[in-house]
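ingest -> validate -> predict -> emit
validate: passed (alphabet ok, no gaps, 436 aa)
predict: started
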Amino acid sequence: MKKAKYKHWWALGLLVLSLRTEARDFHVEVNGNDANPGTPEQPFRTLQKASEMLEPGDTCRVGHGVYPETVRPLRSGKFEHPIRYLAATGGTVTVTGVDESASLGRPDGRSRTWGFDLQGRSLIEISGFDLWAVGVNLTDASYCRMENCRVWSAGEAGGILIGGRENEVLGGSVVGCAGNGVTFLPDSVNNRTSGLLVRDVPRGYGLVVAGTAQTVRHTTVLDSAEGAVLCSNLYNGRLLYNDFGRTNGAGSVRPLVQITGNGKGTVLAYNWIHDQEARGGDGVLLEGPAENYLLHHNVIWGHSGSALRLKGAVQYCLFFNNTFSLNGVCLDREGVGGAKGLRFFNNLFAGTVWPKTGGQPDEGVIWEKNYVGMVPGFTNVPARPFSLAADSPCIDAGQDEPELTDPFRGVSPDAGAYEFGGDYPVPGHTGVETGK
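emit:
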């Protein structure tokens, strides 16, 4: 009799477990009530109420309207069973830092820092939200995803703070932050952005990238006061196919891209870096101590100062197949720090450089097959600025370096970023942003 009783409770336990593993949907609407059960007919009023109910595999579906709150999930998701927050399509779903009694047009009246606070959470996905006067906190988060969200006028803490590991920000935009646009924290690992637009950052950097094995890909950064990007001790990172342009106003003297510390193999490649508006402003500054960075196939133009400036102790860096044009100086060096292990090859310098044309490079600098001159033979193709015409002297003018210059189309690699007749994806974000 006792065995039969235990068997009964064991079967009942399995039944309860199977019911709990079924994914559930909870609904939130501005005309809802948190005393409701969260069904489509009787939705909740707040995302936070839904957050109290969500378990791995569940989804919070949010209707059009404005939600003045910080969303803090009580639980993490699980692999193959993330927790999802999905904004309704066909309109806007706004999580705001401004209370209902204040105007959405006045972010200075913000009452909270974060719209979504995912600190310490794992496997949370948010998609399609507008965030007004608040940012997103991914400190110590892991395997979280933020997709096609727009962050407007966040406070001094910044638009998106990325820590932890294996988090993704895909698509969307960050506009008008009082702090930095997007920050990768120093102790974070293997986080990624792609298809993101960052612009109009009046007092900070568009991107601050530190940590290990971070990837910034197909991202556009425009009009940031302190510069588009600060890379500081970014270990083995990848900044690829990005469009970094303009600082916010002619008064800023910051470089568009500033690199410092030990990169441990960090690569900046296939980027556009252009139009620093400040008089005497630089495109890329490597400021010592800086070492172990690779820059290749970048197109750098429109800087009244230097396209590339080396300041202080810059060592063990590799520069190849970059194109420099329409700059005050293509390449310059400032200060003494003992150049060591610097190598330049297959670059196209349409302008003056250090070392001067015909001169000898400093000890510790290897200078090979670089074009320096004023008639490189460019075409005028807007989608590929400074690509080579058929009669360019830069065609086949480089040297083959296996695993670095492969593939190439001619007898030898060309000098510069664009291989004649080759493919080169257009850098920058791929989304379309609308005004607010």
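Residues 14-19, 431-436 have pLDDT under 50 and may be disordered.
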